[in-house]
Design brief:
Layout: H1 2-33, H2 38-47, H3 50-124, E1 126-129, E2 132-135, H4 136-154, H5 161-175, H6 177-196, H7 202-210, H8 215-224, H9 234-240
Antiparallel strand pairs: 1-2
């Protein structure tokens, strides 16, 4: 398309120049060859004064040609601008992809460090009972068994749970606060970190975290989050991400206690 336009312009310019030169040379040749008298030559010049008009017309054609050339240049500039804009859009899209990749990599580096730290913390938790040491997941198994036995021994009929639970759980938590407070604080911060992140598939990382928790951890977490220690901030996160999806309901103090959470928690 560009080549065709360029050829047309060259052709117009060439033809115009040839016509002008032919007329100019022709008038000189006639004037010299066939007219010897100067007076006659003057009359001939006056008679062909219309040549001036021809040149004026050609000058006008030149102006039009210049406008055409400018228009052509502007058209080319617009096309180049469109190409540039397309390239810039592509670069912008590439930057967005690179930024997402960087954001995800940064998030995952921190997330897996937190996950590893949490696992180390769980393995470090321990309690001695009758000359036995319970660590890691066995620590939580012993802890929940002790909590459930204490509650059932005090309230066999399980009546008025809302009245009795705060007292029993507060006593249980304070007895084990030195280790449980650190455990729950770290678990809450990992959940909050995922929640506040800009990664697309948050559920994927929630599932990775939840997979690290044993059944007894989930049970203790369940009751911690309906106590004063987790009800305000921790519980809403649990409900937002189905974090109790694999909770063993049969191990609750009472199966009806599941109603203390929104269905979204499961």
């Amino acid at each position: 398309m560009k080549k065709n336009k360029s050829k047309k312009i060259k052709l117009i310019v060439t033809v115009s120049l040839i016509i002008v030169l032919a007329i100019w040379i022709g008038s000189i040749f006639i004037n010299i060859k066939y007219i010897s008298n100067w007076q006659t030559r003057g009359l001939f010049g006056d008679m062909f004064g219309s040549v001036n008009s021809l040149f004026s017309g050609l000058a006008f054609v030149g102006v039009i040609l210049a406008i055409f050339l400018q228009s052509h240049e502007l058209s080319l500039q617009r096309k180049e601008l469109k190409k540039t804009q397309k390239v810039l859009r592509g670069q912008k899209q590439q930057l967005i992809i690179q930024n997402r990749t960087f954001t995800k990599q940064t998030f995952e580096n921190t997330f897996f460090q937190l996950l590893n730290s949490h696992q180390i913390l769980v393995e470090s938790l321990n309690i001695f009972f009758v000359d036995q040491k319970f660590t890691g997941t066995r620590y939580f198994a012993h802890l929940y068994s002790d909590f459930r036995s204490t509650y059932k021994n005090l309230f066999l009929d399980n009546s008025n749970f809302e009245k009795h639970f705060p007292k029993v759980y507060n006593q249980f938590f304070k007895t084990n606060q030195s280790q449980l407070s650190h455990y729950f604080r770290q678990l809450y911060n990992i959940l909050l970190f995922i929640d506040k992140s800009e990664v697309d598939d948050k559920i994927f990382y929630i599932n990775l975290l939840r997979a690290k928790l044993s059944s007894n951890e989930l049970l203790i977490l369940f009751y911690n989050c309906i106590s004063i220690y987790g009800k305000e901030k921790f519980k809403p996160l649990i409900e937002s991400y189905n974090f109790l999806k694999y909770l063993p309901f049969e191990e609750l103090l009472n199966k009806d206690h599941r109603n203390y959470y929104e269905d979204s928690a499961y």
